[in-house]
Design a protein that fits this description.
About 60% of the residues lie in helices and about 5% in strands. The chain contains 8 helices and 5 strands; from the N terminus they run βββαααααββααα. Strands 1-4-5 form a 3-stranded mixed β-sheet, with no helix packed on it. Strands 2-3 form a two-stranded antiparallel ribbon. β2 and β3 form a beta hairpin. The mean pLDDT is about 90.
Amino acid sequence: MEHLIWNVDPVAIDVMGLKIHWYGILFALAIASGFQVMKRIYVRENLPVESLDNLLMYCVVGIIVGARLAHCLFYDPSYYLSHPLKILAIWEGGLASHGGGLGAIIALYVYQRQVKLPFLFLLDRLAIATAIFGFFVRMANFVNSEIIGLPTNQPWGVVFERIDFLPRHPAQLYEAIAYLSIFALLWCLYRLSSMKQKHGAIFGLFLILIFSARFLIEMVKVKQAVYTGDWVFSAGQLLSIPFFIVGCVLLAMPYLRKKTAD
């Protein structure tokens, strides 16, 4: 059976020793696409577009710091606690999306105190931008042949030659497709429904969909945490559960309040 052979050079451009990696390009596209989505929303709702520069700066710092700390503390704590300086070595890889999400939420809270807009109102809108951000990040993971899936005989299996010669589930593409689909759904709900008026509902739905997809796709991923070899659930699945529960609460709250008011 023929499978796609994947062995792309992670370096996109190499000019006189200056190397630009595909991961960096796609991560920049992730930031730019999320920023453009937020800009369109701000223009549409007559919000202060000029304040988005601060939001961008806070979110980039929050996402990177949060994602790095979560990877170090949840996926390989013994190593990083023994080598604390390695926590700073982001260029060696290791960013956890759960921590990045928490970092973005903290960054949004700092930003919200400046612009004086409701926190859940902003979370709803940032959720839409985050979904498209996640799409590009997972495509970057695919280019880098990282976060690989388990071996498979399915015709869509991919051989990541930089890892081994086994056809594997392209788990990065599964997640990228899921995140792009979630972005499209949330954008349509924002534009065409009254959900955006129910503060917290879009963000709640975002958490439910994102972490349901993450929980399911983890089933075909190689476990990343070094200590979960014999566990039923992976670290990614365990970390997804509280986010899913919070999402259910946030989605239900505005509708329960409306029912109580009626």
